[in-house]
Amino acid sequence: MYAHQTTLAGTVALSGVGVHSGAPVSLTLDPADAGTGVVFVRVMPNGDEREIPASHALVNGTELQTVLGDPSGASVSTTEHLLAAIRALGLDNVRITVDGPELPIVDGSSRPFVEAIESVGLQAQAAPRRLMKILKPVRVEQGRGFAELAPAPQGFHLDVEIDFASDLIGRQRIALDLTPGSFRTELAGARTFGFLKDVERLWAAGFARGSSTDNTIVLGEDRVLNPEGLRFADEFVRHKALDAVGDLALSGAPLVGRFRSFCGGHRLNGAVLGALLADPAAYAIVDAEAPARRERGDARRPALVANPAAAFGHRAA
């Protein structure tokens, strides 16, 4: 955890296709001033640019993806994989310019976004980092599924469980403390997934038009159709946890607390975050404190924070 806000130490760019639109899209991540937060800059077809802050207040769609939009009609969808990488790596301030309505799906996970961010590293800024500390539990239920946020002394803990009728998935659960290291090794590489039997219905509804085994785990009747198989035996629940990190990043500040979900998804993730934000007594905004020591394993990744001592004359990471 960093005591000061961070931005990118340089500019990075990625491109690909939208998993639902199938359309080519490019995006650029640029450094931003302290206090900016995460802002999408949507380039419209006529060349105009619309700023869409990464805020829960601007969520206007949660079916199979998280969509952000402003009152003018400008929107950007499938934001969750990039937002997960941004939040987990501790990137506070960044401007994301995107030339289409959907972010590129790349390989279906957050790994390409993690690699892009780490290729330039983070730069600490002078402003203190602000956190959203959960003060009391909030819970939302939908059918047999639920999501809840609860207090914790420090850090952010995820506990995600899924239960699918398909024998290829079944019941899976993962629990971990979210850190740059745990996200990088345990969640970032987990890919989105879908069933081949649903593809025609999804196409008719305007979804999955860019989906393929290059960016999605495709499940047949009795096997995974991707030639390389799974990256993790429980890759499905790891991806659901990844999505939760991205959806909860729309809080506007890193959360301090615990998240638990069962049979959740974008809709439940957004609903429990909305319930938290709707109750001013359920959270407090606090300054981050400098950690006592670096996270084990991050010492060999010095580019993650690009020489903060040079910026402040003291250690700020």
TrEMBL record:
Q: Which residues participate directly in catalysis?
A: H266 (proton donor)
Coiled-coil boundaries: none
The keyword Hydrolase belongs to this UniProt entry's keyword annotation: yes
Any Pfam family from its record, for instance, is LpxC
Question: Which transformation does this protein catalyse, written as a reaction?
Answer: a UDP-3-O-[(3R)-3-hydroxyacyl]-N-acetyl-alpha-D-glucosamine + H2O = a UDP-3-O-[(3R)-3-hydroxyacyl]-alpha-D-glucosamine + acetate
Enzyme Commission code(s) on record: 3.5.1.108
- GO MF annotation terms: metal ion binding; UDP-3-O-acyl-N-acetylglucosamine deacetylase activity
So, what pathway does this thing act in? Glycolipid biosynthesis; lipid IV(A) biosynthesis; lipid IV(A) from (3R)-3-hydroxytetradecanoyl-[acyl-carrier-protein] and UDP-N-acetyl-alpha-D-glucosamine: step 2/6
Q: Which SUPFAM superfamilies match?
A: Ribosomal protein S5 domain 2-like
Q: Which GO terms describe its biological process?
A: lipid A biosynthetic process
Its biological purpose is as follows: Catalyzes the hydrolysis of UDP-3-O-myristoyl-N-acetylglucosamine to form UDP-3-O-myristoylglucosamine and acetate, the committed step in lipid A biosynthesis.
Family of the protein in this entry? Belongs to the LpxC family.
Name the chain's protein.
Answer: UDP-3-O-acyl-N-acetylglucosamine deacetylase
Gene that encodes it: lpxC
